[in-house]
Structures are given as C-alpha cells and as structure tokens.
Design goal:
The chain is of the alpha/beta class. The protein has two helices and seven strands. The chain has a single domain, classed as Cation efflux protein, cytoplasmic domain (Alpha-Beta Plaits), CATH 3.30.70.1350. Helix 1 packs across helix 2. The longest helix has 20 residues.
Length: 118
C-alpha cells in the first residue's frame, strides 16, 4: 500500500504528493473542532459535555482510483445522538480535507463501535 497519493498539479511545475500521515493529521485536527468529541477516552472535558471519543486511531487508505478512504471508529456515550455526532465528524473532516487538498476525492466512514455509560 502506498504511503503517498499524487495530487493533481494544474501548474505543471512538478509533482505534488501528500502522505498518509498528513491525511491522518488533518482528520485528527478536524475532530478536535467537533464539540463533545474527544480523541482519547479520558479527556479533560467535563463528562456531561462529552458525547463520543475515538475508539482507535484514524485509518487512511489510498485506492488505486486515487480516492482516499478515511475510517473513524468512535465510542458513543449513552444518550448522545449517533446520527448527529457522526454527521458532525464527517462534515468537519470533509471541510478540512477540502481546504487542504482541494482536488483529492475522499470517502469518510464513521462507525460507532461501542456504547458507553456516562
């Protein structure tokens, strides 16, 4: 599996590649902006304000057709609305990827893998 994906370079001044680690960093930073979602189970936010946290690290896959798949597994806190939390994560990650990569097609999969008590 490749560690870089080539980005369409419209200026024809050379080749441009973005690494898997950069996509992971962009997605991780985006999730930090989603209210109530923590990157680690024992974050510093008040428990009553947390709706979910990452269950495992974000996984990035590059497809042969040039698409980037972003897989995010979360643990949802009981009482939080799964559809709303997942949509917020998808939107934030999508906006960040568009801002940084412009022309790279991507697919963002958010999966609730665990339900936790508060």
């Amino acid at each position: 599996m490749a560690d870089y994906i080539q980005v369409q370079n419209y200026s024809k001044s050379g080749d441009l590649y973005i690494s898997r680690k950069i996509f992971e960093k962009i997605a991780t930073d985006a999730i930090k902006n989603v209210p109530g979602v923590l990157l680690k189970p024992r974050g510093k936010a008040p428990k009553n304000r947390v709706s979910a946290h990452l269950s495992r690290p974000i996984r990035i896959s590059f497809r042969k057709n040039g698409r980037v798949d972003v897989d995010i597994d979360i643990s949802l806190i009981k009482g939080a609305k799964a559809e709303q939390v997942c949509l917020l994560i998808q939107e934030e990650v999508s906006n960040s990827l568009l801002a940084y990569t412009e022309s790279v097609p991507f697919n963002i999969n958010v999966k609730v893998v665990e339900l936790e008590d508060k």
